[in-house]
Amino acid sequence: MTNGVEGQLGIAGVAPGDGPYHGGAWALNLVTFNQSVTPYLLTSDEAVFMAEAAGDVTVTRTPDADFRCPIQP
After folding, report:
1. pLDDT above 90 for 29
2. Separation between Cα atoms, residue 7 and residue 16, nearest integer Å
3. DSSP characters for 10-68?
4. What is each CA distance from 26 to 5, 15, 62, 68, in whole angstroms?
5. CA 72 to CA 47: how far, in whole Å?
Protein backbone atom coordinates (compact mmCIF):
# COMPACT_ATOMS: atom_id res chain seq x y z
CA MET A 1 0.00 0.00 0.00
CA THR A 2 1.45 3.33 -0.94
CA ASN A 3 -1.08 5.75 0.57
CA GLY A 4 -3.36 3.72 2.84
CA VAL A 5 -4.82 4.57 6.20
CA GLU A 6 -2.93 4.36 9.48
CA GLY A 7 -2.86 0.77 10.66
CA GLN A 8 -2.94 -0.73 7.17
CA LEU A 9 -0.94 -3.95 7.04
CA GLY A 10 0.39 -5.93 4.12
CA ILE A 11 -2.04 -8.46 2.67
CA ALA A 12 -1.12 -11.99 1.61
CA GLY A 13 -3.46 -13.65 -0.86
CA VAL A 14 -2.51 -17.21 0.15
CA ALA A 15 -1.08 -19.05 3.15
CA PRO A 16 0.08 -22.58 3.97
CA GLY A 17 -2.87 -24.93 3.58
CA ASP A 18 -4.54 -22.86 0.85
CA GLY A 19 -4.86 -24.59 -2.51
CA PRO A 20 -2.81 -22.02 -4.44
CA TYR A 21 -0.03 -21.68 -1.80
CA HIS A 22 3.26 -21.53 -3.66
CA GLY A 23 5.86 -22.31 -1.00
CA GLY A 24 6.78 -18.78 -0.05
CA ALA A 25 7.54 -17.24 -3.46
CA TRP A 26 5.83 -13.86 -3.20
CA ALA A 27 4.86 -11.63 -6.10
CA LEU A 28 4.57 -8.03 -4.90
CA ASN A 29 1.80 -5.71 -6.06
CA LEU A 30 1.55 -2.12 -4.85
CA VAL A 31 -1.91 -0.79 -4.10
CA THR A 32 -2.54 2.95 -4.38
CA PHE A 33 -5.77 4.75 -3.62
CA ASN A 34 -6.79 6.92 -6.54
CA GLN A 35 -6.59 10.69 -6.02
CA SER A 36 -10.32 11.34 -5.64
CA VAL A 37 -10.81 8.52 -3.08
CA THR A 38 -10.47 8.85 0.69
CA PRO A 39 -8.36 5.83 1.73
CA TYR A 40 -10.00 3.13 3.87
CA LEU A 41 -8.77 -0.05 5.53
CA LEU A 42 -8.32 -3.07 3.27
CA THR A 43 -8.19 -6.37 5.17
CA SER A 44 -8.03 -9.11 2.52
CA ASP A 45 -7.10 -9.78 -1.07
CA GLU A 46 -10.82 -9.93 -1.84
CA ALA A 47 -11.20 -6.39 -0.45
CA VAL A 48 -8.37 -5.21 -2.72
CA PHE A 49 -10.04 -6.84 -5.76
CA MET A 50 -13.36 -5.17 -4.88
CA ALA A 51 -11.68 -1.77 -4.40
CA GLU A 52 -9.94 -2.16 -7.75
CA ALA A 53 -13.21 -3.13 -9.48
CA ALA A 54 -14.91 -0.08 -7.90
CA GLY A 55 -12.16 2.19 -9.25
CA ASP A 56 -10.96 3.14 -5.76
CA VAL A 57 -7.42 1.79 -6.13
CA THR A 58 -4.82 1.02 -8.75
CA VAL A 59 -2.87 -2.23 -8.38
CA THR A 60 0.63 -2.19 -9.90
CA ARG A 61 2.67 -5.36 -10.33
CA THR A 62 6.20 -4.72 -9.00
CA PRO A 63 8.37 -7.72 -9.99
CA ASP A 64 11.65 -6.11 -8.84
CA ALA A 65 10.34 -6.33 -5.26
CA ASP A 66 9.37 -10.04 -5.38
CA PHE A 67 10.89 -12.17 -2.62
CA ARG A 68 11.02 -15.67 -1.17
CA CYS A 69 10.03 -16.24 2.43
CA PRO A 70 7.78 -19.02 3.75
CA ILE A 71 5.14 -18.01 6.28
CA GLN A 72 4.32 -20.33 9.14
CA PRO A 73 0.74 -21.30 9.99
Report:
1. yes
2. 24
3. ---S--TTSTT--TTEE--EEEEE-TTS------SHHHHHHHHHTTSEEEEE-GGG-EE
4. 23, 11, 11, 6
5. 23
Region of residue 55 (phi > 0: left; psi between -120 and 50: alpha; otherwise: beta): left
What is the reported pTM? 0.80
Angle at 14 between CA 7 and CA 59, to 5 degrees: 60
Pairing relationship of beta strands 57-61 and 25-26 according to DSSP bridges: unpaired
Query: Which pairing describes strands 67-68 and 29-33: parallel, antiparallel, or unpaired?
Result: unpaired
